[in-house]
Design a protein that fits this description.
Layout: H1 14-29, H2 33-40, H3 44-51, H4 61-69, H5 74-86, H6 90-98, E1 103-108, H7 119-129, H8 135-148, E2 159-165, H9 167-170, H10 176-186, E3 195-200, E4 213-218, E5 224-229, E6 234-237, H11 240-256, H12 260-272
Parallel strand pairs: 1-2, 2-3
Antiparallel strand pairs: 1-4, 4-5, 5-6
C-alpha cells in the first residue's frame, strides 16, 4: 500500500481530514490506488493527490467513494466541510498548478487573461472591482499578478495558447492609452516560440465557453485541471468527464477562431480605434 507523501493532520484542515479518511478506508478495503482508480473512474494521480492533501476532492468523487467503500454519506459530508473551508482559495490551487504546468490554454470572453495583462490594465480592473481599495492594496494585487507573469520569461516556459473573444479588444478598460498599450503587448505573443493567440470574432456567434474565463492547466504527467471563472466566483475541476468536455469545446473554438495571422490583423485594427484624439484648434 502506498503511504501519504507527507504527514497529514486531520485537526488542521478539512482537506487533510478527507485525505486521512480516504487513506484509511482504502487500507480497510484492501484496495490499491490503481484498483480504486478503476472503480471510481478517477486517475491514480488525482486519487493520490486527494489522499495526500495536495488536490481538492471535487465532485462527484465523494459520491463515488461512498459507494465504493459503503460509507453512506461520509465523504459527501467531508466534501461539504472542504468546500466551505476552501471556497475563497480555489484560485490559489489554480496558481499552484500554473507554476508546474507544461501547457496552459485559456479563453477570455471579455477580459484579457491575467498572464497577458499590462500593469495599467490590471490596475484599472482591480480599482473598478472594488473602488474602496487603498492604493497600497491595489499595488499589492498588481505586484502579485505581475509576479505570475514571470512564468512567461522562464528558460523553459510552458506551451501557452490563448483564445480571446473580440470583446476583449473592444472593451475600453482604462481608456485609449491603456488599451493601445495592452493590445500592442499582445502582438509579439500571437505566434511566438512558446505562445499562440487567436481571436474569436463577433461573427462567430454563441459558443459554449463565452460566459467567463476558462483556464486549462496540463502538468508534465499529462493530467489536466480546469478552472472556470464567472463574474462572482470560480470553480476548479479535474474529473475526467468535465476536463474532456472543456477540452473538446476549446478545440472547437480553436477551429472556428481566426488564425494567428488574421488575429494579429484584427488586434492591429482594434488598436487604431484607440488613437488619441487631437484637441480641436481654436
Amino acid at each position: 500500500m502506498t503511504q501519504p507523501a507527507r504527514d497529514l493532520n486531520p485537526a488542521r484542515s478539512a482537506r487533510e481530514l478527507y485525505g486521512v479518511e480516504l487513506h484509511r478506508q482504502r487500507q480497510l478495503a484492501g484496495l490499491s490506488l490503481d484498483r480504486l482508480s478503476d472503480i471510481v473512474n478517477y486517475s491514480k494521480t488525482h486519487l493520490h493527490g486527494v489522499e495526500t492533501g495536495e488536490r481538492l476532492p471535487l465532485p462527484p468523487i465523494s459520491e463515488k467513494l461512498d459507494v465504493a467503500f459503503g460509507t453512506g454519506e461520509l465523504f459527501q459530508g467531508l466534501w461539504g466541510a472542504v468546500k466551505r473551508e476552501h471556497t475563497a482559495r480555489r484560485f490559489d490551487h489554480c496558481l499552484e498548478l500554473e507554476v508546474r504546468a507544461a501547457r496552459i490554454q485559456a479563453f477570455g470572453a471579455s477580459l484579457i487573461p491575467g498572464l497577458l495583462q499590462t500593469k495599467a490594465y490590471m490596475r484599472e480592473l482591480f480599482l473598478r472591482a472594488d473602488p474602496g481599495r487603498t492604493p497600497q492594496e491595489i499595488d499589492g494585487l498588481v505586484a502579485a499578478r505581475l509576479g505570475r507573469q514571470e512564468i512567461l520569461r522562464r528558460d523553459c516556459p510552458p506551451d501557452f495558447w490563448w483564445i480571446l473573444g473580440e470583446a476583449t479588444l473592444r472593451q475600453a478598460v482604462g481608456g485609449p492609452a491603456v488599451m493601445r498599450e495592452q493590445l500592442t503587448s499582445l502582438l509579439p505573443l500571437v505566434y511566438g516560440r512558446h505562445t499562440t493567440i487567436q481571436v474569436a470574432p463577433f461573427q462567430l456567434g454563441a459558443c459554449a465557453l463565452m460566459n467567463g474565463t476558462l483556464i486549462m492547466l496540463t502538468l508534465p504527467d499529462n493530467s489536466t485541471t480546469v478552472y472556470h471563472e464567472g463574474p462572482w466566483n470560480g470553480e476548479i475541476y479535474d474529473d475526467q468527464e468535465t476536463v474532456r468536455r472543456c477540452m473538446r469545446e476549446y478545440d472547437r473554438m480553436k477551429a472556428c477562431a481566426l488564425s494567428p495571422h488574421e488575429s494579429a490583423a484584427l488586434i492591429e485594427a482594434a488598436m487604431e480605434t484607440y488613437e488619441p484624439c487631437e484637441s480641436p484648434r481654436t
